[in-house]
Amino acid sequence: MTEKPKSHGRLSIAASVKPRELMTDSPDLAGAWKARVITLFPAAFPGVLGESLTGKALQDGLWQLQTIDLRDFGEGRHKNVDDTPAGGGAGMVLRADVLAKALTDAADGTPRDRARWPVLYLSPRGKRFDQAMAHRLAAADGVTLLCGRFEGVDERVIEHFGIEEVSLGDFILTGGEIAAQALIDATVRLIPRVLGNQASTEEETFSDFLLEHPQYTKPAVWEGREIPEVLLSGHHGKIADWRRAMAERLTKERRPDLWRAYCAKYNRDPDEDREL
């Protein structure tokens, strides 16, 4: 019999300054977006997710985090979760039978419709995670994340459970826990009321294939550098035009891929010599 997964979320007692007190069992929160994380290191959570706005939203019950310790499903006296690769080679691979038990446990009470509850494996060979995917995940009821270790997981598990592979980028981490926290953070902040000002999520980088325009604040002059005059003009139309122009300039210079997508959306020539 396995230990009940740890659930992180709103507590029935007053909030404490001790972040680890988020690591207590709590019932499912009706209507809250949920993340279930299968990991060999449940103590790594909530980590930075327990801080700042995501941490407050976690305590307020806007979302819920459950960790499922893969070791609980291990085989034998030593709770083995991995074995040597078939065909030889370096490293170890997470076992199919162990993973299957953990994934079955994680699926308890979740919708069968993967649009409502995606199951993801954090993998460098997966589809690149982006803002559009974050919006898709935020619109679901929740998500199950499988954090890999060692040389990865038995391919048969990915095929059998129809798991979607997702990558943060073209680099390798020692495990999926950091990637899982980054994915959860990017998703949770899109949940209504988490940020407070939902308009900010509509204006920021990647929201319309554009990088965000430069930002400034007080003092008006710092180290001889002045805030652009238009931002102090009080003319909202001119400010909006300036911000759009700067966002276009930065995107064209730094992210040609995003620039092409932006131009395709608005039927513009990406090679046009329009003054930005």
Please give a quick description of this structure.
The protein is α/β, with parallel strands linked by helices. 29% of the residues lie in helices and 16% in strands. The strands form 3 sheets. A 6-stranded mixed beta sheet has the order 1-3-2-7-6-8, sandwiched between helices. It has a two-stranded antiparallel ribbon with strand order 4-5. A two-stranded antiparallel sheet has the order 9-10.
List the helices and strands and how they pair.
Elements: E1 6-8, E2 33-39, H1 52-59, E3 63-69, E4 82-83, E5 93-94, H2 96-106, E6 119-128, H3 131-138, E7 142-147, H4 155-161, E8 164-167, H5 177-188, H6 199-203, E9 221-222, E10 225-226, H7 236-254, H8 256-265
Parallel strand pairs: 2-3, 2-7, 6-7, 6-8
Antiparallel strand pairs: 1-3, 4-5, 9-10
What do these coordinates show?
- The chain is of the alpha/beta class and 276 residues long.
- It has eight helices and ten strands.
- The strands form three sheets. Strands 1-3-2-7-6-8 form a six-stranded mixed beta sheet, with helices on both faces. A two-stranded antiparallel ribbon has the order 4-5. Strands 9-10 form a two-stranded antiparallel ribbon.
- Strand 9 and strand 10 form a beta hairpin.
- The protein is elongated, with a radius of gyration of 22 Å.
- About 6% of the residues have low confidence.
